[in-house]
Structure to design on (73 residues):
């Protein structure tokens, strides 16, 4: 994910506050604060934006396995 243009927050507290402000609860458009190792700071974004997040990646792989298994039986 390219986060060069994202706003950089110095700590989780500020990023959390910004994430709440950026979230649109009526549209289920929720943002979360996450630490960026590249910029050594915090960003806000959508949970599914974590293309470099190993946990999210695992879920994607699991979902892929599930659908291919269910394809024919
Ligand atoms: Zn970053």
């Amino acid at each position: 994910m390219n986060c060069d243009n994202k706003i950089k927050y110095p700590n989780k507290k500020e990023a959390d506050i910004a994430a709440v402000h950026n979230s649109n609860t009526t549209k289920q458009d929720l943002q979360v604060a996450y630490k960026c190792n590249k910029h050594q700071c915090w960003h806000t974004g959508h949970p599914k934006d974590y293309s470099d997040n190993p946990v999210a990646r695992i879920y994607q792989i699991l979902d892929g396995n599930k659908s291919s298994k269910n394809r024919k039986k």
About this structure: Residues 3, 6, 36, 38-39, 43 surround zinc ion (CB under 6 Å). Residues 13 and 43 are 11 Å apart (CA to CA). The chain has one domain: 12-69. The beta strands are 32-36, 41-45.
